[in-house]
Amino acid sequence: MGRATPLIACPDCGAFFLAPHPAPGQRARCPRCRAVLWAGHPRGASLALPLALAALPLLPLAFLEPLLQISLLGQRVSASLITGPLLLDENGWQALAALVVLTACLLPVVRLLGLIAVLAALRRPRPRPHPLWRAILRGSERLRPFAMVEVYLLGLFVAYSKLIDLARVHVELAAYALAALMLVMAVIDQLVDPRALWEALAGAHPPPPGAPKPPPATQLIGCTSCGLVSQAREGNLCPRCFSRLARRKKRSLARTLALVIAAFVLYIPANLLPVMTVDYYGQGTPNTILSGVAELASAGMWPLAVLVFFASITVPVLKLAGLVLLMVSARRGWAGRLHDRTRLYRLIDAIGRWSMIDVFMISILVGLVRLGLLASVHPEAGVVAFAAVVVLTLFAAESFDPRLMWDAARRNPRPLPPGGGEAAP
């Protein structure tokens, strides 16, 4: 007997569809907004578990062993991932140290361990829908945007590029372990579809044979955590993952607007104030984000300079401007270019984390460049403002509900784009 065709709520436009399981290697997309509803390898869970277990020995190597070593005039200094945060904490930058440790170390570890626990539970002949496993899977998916191993690795590469003109730089074991960990996590994310995990762990809740057709869309609520569509009242718990059900995110526009305004205010000092001071032989040189990009360009590292400029300067501006556009369109009920605005939201949600490159780079330089009067690096107030902008824009994208744009357009006299029906047969 084949698997039942599940009723799926599109997370981007809010429409309900009876979406069959795609064939191996294919993806199921929302016919209205083209969001990916279902993806992953058919044997993703069984393949991902050995990969996740193989990543466990990489954790102490990646986080505790030295990442880089520099040599200058007979002095050698090495630093691990946690060296920079420890020095930041000692010098009064506790919030910055906590942010680096959380996003580059603790949250990736917690997410990996959570995935291992869930994948191991699925290896049982008959997985029991225990509330603990559901809570672990729900938390693991919510941590995904904030687990930034790959962003930290790019920050390490930028730090290496800045150091090669100062001293002799050696890449140590932890850098290779971190790269291997990043690759393993990327492969796991490609293999495993969260919706497939939910169905395997807690069941798809298909209707029994002869059951009546699903009730109208106004009586259905799609869970934003696990994707289950159920007939329930707002405020009830999802029967599969126990998240609090709501038709739309509460006070989405108000919360997004408050976060965007705060990010706009902090964006000015983040770019005007120095983010770090580099001392050479007792003389300090303050660096802003833009001056750091200029240094990379003057050293002939144009691709890296463009990358840092895009991630640290262009991306925050695009995110803030894009969120303003999306909020205005949802408030005014614009019906035009809904697909383009939905794609813009997906882009904003995906690229915001890469702005942490400069924060990670400064943490690495602070931990590594400790050569007394010869050379040292000190963080400045600008990096705190910049880190706050990145965090605020991440939460702003998370708080915005793109389904509000489709709801507002539906109330507009102008017709929705083709395929804009509420439910598919």
Report on the structure:
- The chain has one domain.
- The chain is mainly alpha-helical.
- The strands form five sheets. Strands 6-5-7 form a three-stranded antiparallel beta sheet. A three-stranded antiparallel beta sheet has the order 11-10-12.
- It contains 15 helices and twelve strands.
- The N terminus and C terminus are likely disordered.
- α1 crosses α4, α6 packs across α13 and α11 packs across α14.
Short recap of the structure:
The chain has 15 helices and 12 strands.
Structural category is: mainly alpha
Could you estimate the helical fraction of the residues in percent? Answer: 40-55%
Number of strands: 12
How many whole angstroms does the radius of gyration measure? Answer: 24 Å
- The H/E string reads EEEEHHEEHHHHEHHEEHEEHHHHEHH
Give the helix tally.
Answer: 15
